[in-house]
Every structure is written in C-alpha cells, then in structure tokens.
Amino acid sequence: MSENRHLIRNSFSEEIDTKLNTELEEPAMFSVIMHNDHYTTMQFVVEILKTVFHKTDEEAHALMLQIHDSGSTVCGIFIYDVANTKLNHVHGLAKRAGFPLKCTLEEV
Questions:
Q1: What is the model's pLDDT at position 3?
Q2: Which of 14, 35, 38, 77 is 20 to 30 Å from 27 by CA-CA measure?
Q3: pLDDT tens for residues 2-53?
Q4: What's the whole-model pTM score?
Q5: 4 falls within a domain
Q6: At 56, which CATH number?
Q7: What are the residue ranges of helices labelled H in the chain?
Q8: 106 close to 31: Cβ distance less than 8 angstroms
Q9: Distance CA 92, CA 39 (A)
C-alpha cells in the first residue's frame, strides 16, 4: 500500500494535511466458456477459437475436442470488458453463420 500526503488549501487559505490512499485493486477476471451443441460444426468452432481467441491450430483442435467431449471448456480468461466483447463477437459470428453456438462468462 502506498500513501501520499498532500497539503490542500481550503477556501479560508488554511493548509489541510490529507492522506491519500493510492493502492490500486486488480480488476475482476472472467472466464469465457464455450458450450457444446448438436448443430454447430467442429470446423466452425475451430475457426472461432483461432480468430476470436487467437489459438493455434493445434490448441483450437484440442479445445474443440474438450468442448465436444465434456460439454464446455474455458477459451480464455480476461477482464470483464474484453471477455464480454469476445462473447458478443462469438455470438454475432455464430448467428451470421446460422449456428446456435453459445458462450457464457464466469467470474474467476
């Protein structure tokens, strides 16, 4: 924890000694979880993992198989704004392609 002391002049020209707490909190992190369905093709899931989550071809295939076998898997962990943007990107791409692919967020 870091503390800084500052002198502030008020409207009466008196100096007021204040102590400011400059400790920063780490942002909450969220997992983006992709869920299996019976309609979205495996190739589409691989492409999503590569383009949206920047996975290598090998990583994308391994994650796709985890989704297929276990019903869901974590695609990445991000701060909320990034996680939510990725979730919306996946849903938009899936909708345009005619697939019901679903992702959810879970706080870590």
A1: 52
A2: 35
A3: 455 656 565 665 555 566 667 888 999 999 999 999 999 999 999 999 999 9
A4: 0.78
A5: no
A6: 3.30.1390.10
A7: 42-51, 57-70, 80-97
A8: yes
A9: 16
